Amino acid sequence: MTREQIIIDTSGPPAGPARKVADPKPSLLLGEHSLCPGCGEPVALRLLLEVLQELDIVQRTIGVVGHGCYGSFVRIMDVDVLQCLHGRAPSCATGIKRVRPECAVFTMQGDGDMANEGLQEVLHAAARGERITCVLLNNGVFGDTGGQLTATTVLGQRTKTSLAGREAETHGYPIPVADLVASLQGTAYVARGTVSTAGGVAQTRRMLRKAFEAQLAGAGFSLVEILTMCPTGWFVPTAEGPGYLGGSLEQTYPLGELVT
Amino acid sequence: MTRELLEGSAAIAAAAITAGCRFFAGYPMSPFTGLLESMSRELPAVGGVCVNAESEIEGANMVLGAAAAGTRSATGSCGQGIALMQETIAEAALNETPFVVFNMARNQQDYFQCTRGGGWGDYRTITLAPKDVTEAVEHTQLLFHLAELHRAPVILYGDPLIAQTRISVTVAPRDYGPLPARDWVLDGTGGGTGRSRQVWTWAMGKATDPGPGPDRHWRAVADKFDAIAGVEARFEQAYVDDAETVVVAFGTAALFVEYVVEELRAEGHRIGWFRPVSLWPFPGEALAAATTGARRVLVFELNAGQMLDDVRIHAADRSVVRFIGGVSIAESGLAYGDLMDAPVIRDRILAALTGGVPA
Q1: CB nearest to A85's CB, from B22, B70, B88
Q2: How far apart are the C-alpha atoms of A150 and B48, rounded to whole Å?
Q3: Is the pLDDT higher at B210 or at B10?
Q4: Residue A99 is nearest to which of B49, B55, B190, comparing CB atoms?
Q5: Per the CB < 8 Å rule, is B192 touching A79?
Q6: Which of B211, B264, B297, B339 is most buried, taking the most CB atoms under 10 A from its CB?
Q7: Residue A83: closest CA among chain B residues belongs to which residue?
Q8: CA distance A29 to A201
Q9: Residue A208, Cα to own-chain centre: how many angstroms?
């Protein structure tokens, strides 16, 4: 193999902006996602798939996906998937893991799925110390149905069913799922990350990796709550999604590792 | 295999394990509880798993997951608990995941629940109603086969008499014939190959290999249930050829009816009995044939008249169908009431024979 001489012309500025180009299409993605511009969920999906590849467990992984925008990921994730009922993913994942302990089993759920309909499932799965990894994509609204209040909508947030903003007196207080789960015995790893900033993306990726490592080590239940942007459901301009998330959800749900 | 003196629940558990059941999850509710206890005691010994779930909903979904991963699995409860499971039963019917649901019911008021379901979609559930523990053992083994053969959740409709009667039974392996390839099972190995699998009610396939989509998939599922209706109907009957009166009953109540009809036959009455063994598919054609020459078709069931609908649909002459059953439950809620009594059933049949109106 001939080694080419690389000449970098430093006599003037580069022709285009300097940038690091990532592989635009991870090999575990089978097609384009269909979610709205500015949505944070495709970023989270990509992190998850990359971690599965990094850990070299792609061919012994089974995912369980609930109902929400991310349901469309079933079509583009190149891993075995059970698409289950709203809220029930941790129970389905429990059944799968108990009969296939050699597999890495994960769930992907939104806040409406996990915190509203399925709060009981995730809490009991955590308390049982199921060797599964649950991923909560928390954008504080029902995105799929167009931006209604969920159990994680932050106080003051305007949604289609809390037009004047969430008030505790009327709608109750938001539920910090990661904190609830972290309070239970049976957990091996619990963390909350974000995909609203480059640093947050890198940190969330590490969290997902640790969560799967905990599962593979048989240490117990793991959960990563990922704050994601939903500018469509929030009724804010696409470009303002990350900033809105930083000023609202991140204030209510502090980032970091809760159980390690 | 040796004969053992077992309570019905324990016999059913032994039958399930013999049929290959290796995952069970349920929530205690009498008279189902004995089955859950038996499974929790017996399954670990054969390398299986039994989870005392925190709710019926969780138990049913654990079973859906385990079954989707390719393990013969079962859950159960009774009426109210089965109601909570209907969401999952419908989902499994539509995403074609096989498992067995043991409805150790408190009475016969779950007929509509088992045969009509409470979930959404064009699905039905094969439901077998044994008349005693011996038959429950046979049905249990058959149901695991039928679930996998047709890739659908199926129901055993028992009751307190079956769950709690202690009898001498033999549980031996049974061979019901070949089964289709299990190429739908999620085993995790498809990842990264472009041929990863999905179990999904909407059947829209992977982006690189589109599935049939909901319209074609659901039509295919509905067609499947039509086909099942044509081949899985089961029934028993006696003396119907010359019967002026045919008494229709299911489950343990049918055992009592059978006894009374034998008595009345011996006394010279032209009477026969017909028992749907499968409640869905309902053996409608057989019932039509059995009632062709009958002047009376009497329906005895311990509810306000649920199977009565199916009998009316299928009887050769629906104008001769009379209901002689009724709601009958002990105050404990865990046993049949006064109507589940051979002399009472005899009185009701005789009243109908002589033109009297049953109480």
Answers
A1: B88
A2: 38
A3: B10
A4: B49
A5: yes
A6: B297
A7: B200
A8: 18
A9: 9
- The stretch A98-110 carries a mean pLDDT of 98
Q: Which residues in chain A are closer than 8 Å to B193, comparing Cβ atoms? A: 59, 78
Q: What is the pLDDT of residue B54?
A: 98
* pLDDT band, residue A23 (cuts 50/70/90): low
ipTM associated with this complex: 0.96
Q: Which of B268, B323, B276 is nearest to B296 (CA)?
A: B323
User: How distant is the Cα of B101 from the closest Cα of chain A, in angstroms?
Assistant: 15
User: pLDDT value at position A9?
Assistant: 81
| DSSP result, B17-30 | HHTT--EEEE---T
Prediction pTM value: 0.94
> What would the two tokens of residue A128 be?
């049982």
CA-based nearest distance B65→chain A, Å? 4
Cβ–Cβ below 8 Å for B70 and A77: no
pLDDT in tens, B247-291: 999 999 999 999 999 999 999 999 999 999 999 999 999 999 999
The CA-CA-CA angle for residues A204, A207, A208, to 5°, reads 90
- In the DSSP assignment, the letter for residue B306 is S
Q: What is the pLDDT of residues B199-215, one digit of tens each?
A: 999 999 999 998 999 99
Please give the Cα distance from B187 to A105 (Å, whole number).
11
Burial of B143 (0-12, 13-18, 19+ CB in 10 A): buried
Which of A60, A73, A100, A131 to mutate to probe the B interface, most B CBs <10 Å? A100
Q: Does residue A30 sit at the B interface (CB-CB below 8 Å)?
A: yes
Indicate if the pLDDT at residue A22 is higher than 70. Answer: no
Q: Token pair for residue B110?
A: 């779950």
The answer to whether residue A84 neighbours chain B at the CB level (below 8 Å) is: yes
Q: What is the mean pLDDT of residues B241-250?
A: 97
User: Which among B239, B266, B261 is positioned nearest to B249, based on CA atoms?
Assistant: B261
- Comparing CA positions, the residue from A129, A96, A104 lying closest to residue A216 is A104
Coil, strand or helix at B245: strand
Size of interface A-B (CB pairs under 8 A): 155
Q: Determine which of A33, A56, A88 to mutate to test the interface with B (most B C-beta atoms within 10 Å).
A: A88
Closest chain A C-alpha to B7 CA, distance in angstroms: 28
Residue B269, classified by CB atoms within 10 Å of its CB into exposed (0-12), middle (13-18) or buried (19+), is: middle
3-class state of residue A34 by DSSP = coil
pLDDT band at residue B359 under the 50/70/90 scheme = very low
Alpha-helical (H) ranges within B172-306 are 213-231, 251-266, 284-290
